[in-house]
TrEMBL record:
It comes from the Bacteria. Pfam families: Cupin_2, HTH_31. It comes from Phaeobacter gallaeciensis. GO terms for molecular function: DNA binding; DNA-binding transcription factor activity. This is XRE family transcriptional regulator. One of its GO terms (cellular component) is cytosol. InterPro entries: Cro/C1-type_HTH, Cupin_2, Lambda_DNA-bd_dom_sf, RmlC-like_jellyroll, RmlC_Cupin_sf, TransReg_Diox_bact_type. The keyword DNA-binding applies. SMART domains: HTH_XRE. Residues 25-79 form the HTH cro/C1-type domain. Keywords: DNA-binding.
Length: 202
């Protein structure tokens, strides 16, 4: 059985969005006749973590959330928006202000964009970085693909394991291999706001 410690990135959540998301994951799993252990085997997440997520009790970090979607064989957008359409030549989708899907952890708040379209290679989102120190995290984030980061406001340190932090001020951007273990930390009194686009292989 996979084991996993509860970290600051897996936090109590009482938002309707997280409860709805957890219920959707549970419904998908049960419709396939999978037990919690079956999904744990496919994602590498602990049974207890999946169970708490399905109940809306915790929120997953981005990398764990991607592992969950991949384990289900689904696009991230499918988890947020049941009635999605696949990307094809000539496709376009509009996300109006105030219609983003919120995914929140103790350290980040992500506003997921273009969730109505699945099968896309990029995952766009805006975010607010609540963490102000590296010690706010238990571990670094890592996931396959490439990542583009643009700082909208505040000051941000991008901490890549084994390297000096890269400091960004508004208007700065950074493009990097997201398989590198990394963290975003607000370096200003206010929470930094970012635009992020992740490219995922496959």
């Amino acid at each position: 059985m996979t084991t996993e410690k509860l970290s600051p990135d897996l936090i109590p959540s009482a938002t309707a969005t997280q409860a709805d998301l957890g219920a959707r994951v549970r419904d998908i799993r049960k419709a396939r006749g999978w037990k919690l252990q079956d999904l744990a085997d496919r994602t590498g997440l602990a049974v207890s973590t999946i169970s708490k997520m399905e109940r809306g009790a915790i929120s997953l970090t981005y990398d764990r959330f991607m592992r969950l979607a991949q384990g289900l064989g689904m696009d991230v957008g499918d988890l947020f928006t049941p009635d999605t359409k696949g990307f094809e030549a000539g496709s376009a989708t509009l996300t109006k202000s105030g219609e983003t899907k919120i995914h929140e952890t103790e350290t980040y708040v992500y506003e997921m964009l273009a969730t109505e379209m699945t099968g896309k290679h990029m995952v766009p989102m805006t975010g607010e970085i609540k963490a102000h120190e590296i010690k706010d995290f238990r571990e670094y984030v890592t996931h396959p693909g490439e990542e583009f980061l643009y700082l909208l406001s505040g000051v941000l340190d991008v901490c890549i394991k084994g390297r000096d932090p890269v400091r960004l001020t508004p208007g700065d951007s950074l493009y990097f291999d997201s398989a590198l273990e990394h963290l975003y930390v607000s370096a200003s009194p206010e929470n930094a706001r970012i635009l992020v686009v992740c490219w995922k292989p496959g």
